[in-house]
Write a structure and sequence with these properties.
about 130 residues; alpha+beta; Nucleoside Triphosphate Pyrophosphohydrolase; seven-stranded mixed sheet; 2 helices; 7 strands
């Protein structure tokens, strides 16, 4: 099973989602930013590194939210989900994804997301977003 650090980034009551690139598994699906744990890393170090690689920004990894496991055709994944805080006025880059969008919790179900991320959406609909 692959362990994935997954970040929920909130700004003005909106959550950042990213569209997966063509040529990868689940192309054009929307996801929460993050990526696979590498040997020797903690999950928080993984998420911080992945956000730097994907979005070109420093990040503070906050409180653990949940784990979402799912077995796809291309492998089994365990998403470790954390609140993430970005620096004020962080300029996000699209180093990996096709698009980035800020959406409300109510808008999340209208985006095609991988099954593991759908479990996260369901959780987000039941919790209070951090300020």
């Amino acid at each position: 099973m692959k362990i994935v650090g997954t970040g929920i980034i909130v700004d003005n009551e909106k959550i950042l989602i990213a569209q997966r690139p063509k040529g990868k598994s689940l192309p054009d699906y929307w996801e929460f930013p993050g990526g696979k744990l590498e040997e020797g890393e903690t999950i928080q170090e993984c998420l911080k590194r992945e956000l730097w690689e994907e979005l070109g920004t420093e990040a503070e990894i906050g409180e653990f939210i949940m784990e979402s496991d799912y077995k796809y055709e291309h492998g089994e994944f365990a998403l470790q989900v954390f609140w993430v805080h970005l620096p004020k006025n962080a300029e996000l880059k699209m180093n990996v994804h096709q698009q980035l969008k800020w959406v409300t919790v109510d808008e999340l179900p209208s985006y095609q997301m991988p099954p593991a991320d759908i479990h996260i959406v369901e959780k987000l609909q039941k919790v209070k977003l951090p300020a």
